[in-house]
Specification:
Length: 224
């Protein structure tokens, strides 16, 4: 499992301080280092610096500094979540898990979720549809296995059912099962005991998400 690095929260000088320098960071020109009373205090996204109209010589209270840092954490959390979504669509549950891993407080997490929702990035119904179509095409899995995977990712059973019924009609399930049955029979071709062979094939196909009724029907049809 990939370890997610939490967002670090800098310590705020208890008495605040006077801004003595604002400097672009060398490793990221979109970030600015804020120095209070000649000491590095914290970094901020340049947009926050501009929106807050920060200038050298300005006195910043501890509370105001904390507000600036919290806004910066929001910027960081948004970027990390957008990067997370870029790889593939995510469910609301997956976004919640990532925000927990990032260690942001609930007030900031709520803002991130709301903004992602406004942007259309959190849509479990669309996720379920795309995920179902992908798994049907690429993995040869049965209806129940894909449904289980969707529920594990946080999709409700109702949404999972609805998406799968659209992406995986009954005739396609039968076609997929027939193909998987051929592969299973090949896998267990060296099994000499017919009953043991049938049991192994049935268990193999059930693990792939096909129901026992579907499997037995397919086996009977293949023997006709």
């Amino acid at each position: 499992m990939i370890r997610i690095k939490p967002i670090e929260i800098p310590s705020i000088p208890p008495g605040g301080g006077t801004i003595t320098n604002l400097a672009f960071q060398k490793q990221d020109s979109n970030r600015c280092s804020v120095f209070l009373d000649e000491e590095y205090a914290f970094g901020l996204h340049v947009d926050i610096v501009m929106q807050s109209d920060l200038k050298k010589g300005m006195f910043v209270t501890a509370d105001a500094a904390a507000d600036l840092v919290n806004e910066d954490v929001y910027f960081k959390a948004m970027k990390r979540c957008l990067d997370f979504i870029t790889n593939r669509p995510r469910t609301a549950k997956e976004i919640d898990t990532r925000l927990t891993q990032l260690g942001v407080v609930e007030t900031i997490a709520s803002r991130v979720r709301m903004r992602l929702d406004e942007l259309g990035y959190i849509n479990d119904a669309e996720f379920a549809r795309l995920f179902s179509e992908s798994r049907v095409r690429s993995k040869g899995l049965g209806f129940f296995r894909i449904k289980q995977e969707l529920i594990h990712k946080g999709v409700t059973p109702e949404l999972a059912d609805s998406a799968l019924k659209t992406a995986y009609p009954e005739e396609e399930q039968q076609s997929q099962l027939s193909s998987q049955l051929v592969l299973a029979e090949r896998k267990y071709r060296k099994e000499s005991d017919p009953n043991a062979k049938r049991h192994k094939i049935t268990q193999h196909l059930m693990r792939r998400g096909f129901s026992s009724t579907q499997i037995l029907d397919a086996i009977r049809s293949s023997n006709d």
